[in-house]
Design brief:
This protein folds into two domains: 143 residues, Glutaredoxin; 109 residues, Up-down Bundle (Endoplasmic reticulum protein erp29). Helix content is 54%, strand content 14%. The protein is built from ten helices and nine strands. Strands 3-5-4-6-7 form a five-stranded mixed beta sheet, covered by helices on one side. α3 links the parallel β4 and β5. The longest helix has 20 residues. The radius of gyration is 22 Å and the shape is elongated. The C terminus is likely disordered.
Length: 271
C-alpha cells in the first residue's frame, strides 16, 4: 500500500514529465502568477495580489499547532495536484493556504473561528461572494465542491441572456398543456420578430424558442428539459469547449432555469 507521501511524489513527477514549465504557470492577477499543481502560500501582504483576480482561489486557513490541520495538509496538496488533472478545473481554480496564526486580521476578516477553515473565493467580475466550505474533507470532496462552484460561476455569467418577461412565458410553457404551450411560443416569436426590440433580447428570444420547439417534439417535454439541463451541465464541466461555445452553452443552460423554476416578483410574489 503506497503511503500518502509516495502518491504525492509520483503525482508531482508525472506532472513534471508531461507538462512544460510554462503550462504550469497561471496568471492570478495582473503582474502576479502562481504554479498549477502546488499549494499557493498566501499572507496578508500577498493575499490581495492573487485573490479576486482572473482565477478562483480555494483557500485553507490553518494553524501550525492544529492536529487536524497537519493531517489534512497532504490531502490539500493532493487536491492541488488534482486540479491540474481535471480539464474543467485546470486554469480555473487554485488551492492556497494561509497561516492564520501569523495573519490574524486576515483570518478574522473572513470569519475564521476554527481550524482548518476552507473558503472559496470567486474571480473578479463575479456576483458571487466568498463561500465557506464545511463538507467532507477528502480529495474527491474538494474536487466536487470546486467543480460545483465553477459551474455556478459559468451559469452566473450566462444570466445576461435571461429576460424576465421571457422567463415568465417559459415557466407557463413548461407547466401548460398543448394550447397553452402554443400560445407561449407565439408570444416568444413576437418578441423575436419585433424590429423595435433590442438585438440582445431578440437573440435571447430565439434561444427560448428553440428550447420550446425541441421540448414539444419530445415524448415527455418535462423530462426533456431536465435531461437537457444535465447534458449542458456535463458539457460545461468537461473543459473541452472553446470560449465561444462555452458562452453559448452557459447562456442556454441559464435560460433553462426559466423553464424549470417559477419566476417571482421582488418579495417572492408569483406572477
Amino acid at each position: 500500500m503506497p503511503t500518502t507521501f509516495s502518491r504525492i511524489y509520483w503525482l508531482l513527477l508525472g506532472i513534471s514529465l508531461t507538462c512544460k514549465a510554462e503550462d504550469l504557470l497561471v496568471a492570478t492577477k495582473k503582474g502576479s502568477t502562481a504554479t498549477l499543481g502546488q499549494v499557493l502560500k498566501l499572507d496578508a501582504d500577498s493575499f490581495a495580489d492573487h485573490v479576486a483576480g482572473d482565477i478562483s482561489i480555494f483557500v485553507k486557513f490553518y494553524a501550525p499547532w492544529c492536529g487536524h490541520c497537519k493531517r489534512i495538509a497532504p490531502v490539500w496538496m493532493e487536491f492541488a495536484q488534482k486540479l491540474v488533472e481535471e480539464p474543467s478545473l485546470k486554469h480555473k481554480v487554485l488551492a492556497a493556504e494561509v497561516n492564520a496564526d501569523e495573519n490574524t486580521a486576515l483570518a478574522k476578516e473572513y470569519g475564521v473561528t476554527g481550524y482548518p477553515t476552507f473558503v472559496f473565493f470567486p474571480p473578479k467580475g463575479s456576483s458571487q461572494r466568498p463561500m465557506h466550505y464545511g463538507g467532507p474533507q477528502k480529495v474527491e470532496d474538494f474536487v466536487r465542491f470546486a467543480g460545483s462552484r465553477t459551474t455556478a460561476l459559468f451559469l452566473d455569467r450566462g444570466k445576461a441572456s435571461r429576460v424576465f418577461a421571457l422567463d415568465v412565458l417559459a415557466w407557463r410553457f413548461a407547466q401548460g398543456g398543448g394550447d397553452a404551450r402554443e400560445d407561449m411560443m407565439r408570444r416568444v416569436r413576437e418578441v423575436r420578430d419585433r424590429d423595435s426590440a433590442p438585438g440582445s433580447m431578440r437573440a435571447s428570444a430565439e434561444m427560448y424558442l428553440k428550447l420550446m420547439e425541441k421540448s414539444i417534439k419530445a415524448e415527455d417535454p418535462g423530462k426533456f428539459l431536465e435531461e437537457e439541463k444535465e447534458r449542458l451541465d456535463r458539457l460545461i464541466r468537461s473543459g473541452q469547449l472553446t470560449d465561444e461555445k462555452l458562452s453559448e452553452v452557459t447562456a442556454r443552460r441559464s435560460i433553462l432555469d426559466g423553464f424549470l423554476h417559477e419566476t417571482l416578483l421582488p418579495g417572492g410574489v408569483p406572477l
